Amino acid sequence: MRAAVLQEIGQEKLEVLDDVEAVGFGPGRVRIRVRATGLCHSDLSAMNGVLPQPAPFVPGHEGAGEVLEVGEGVTRVKPGDRVVVCWLPACGACPACRRGQTELCLAGFMNAGTPNFRRPGGDVFGFAGTGTFAEEVVVDAGCAVPIPDDVPFDIAALIGCGVTTGLGAALNTADVEAGSSVAVIGCGGVGISAIQGARLKGAAEIVAVDPVASRREAALRFGATRAVSPDELSGAKQEVTAGEGFDYVFEVVGRSATARTAYENTRRGGTLVVVGAGAMDDFLQLNMFELFFDEKRILPSMYGGGDVVASYERTIALWRAGRVDLEGLITHRVPLAEINEALDQMRTGTALRTCIEI
Question: For strand 266-274 and strand 297-300, is the pairing parallel, antiparallel, or unpaired?
Answer without folding.
Answer: parallel
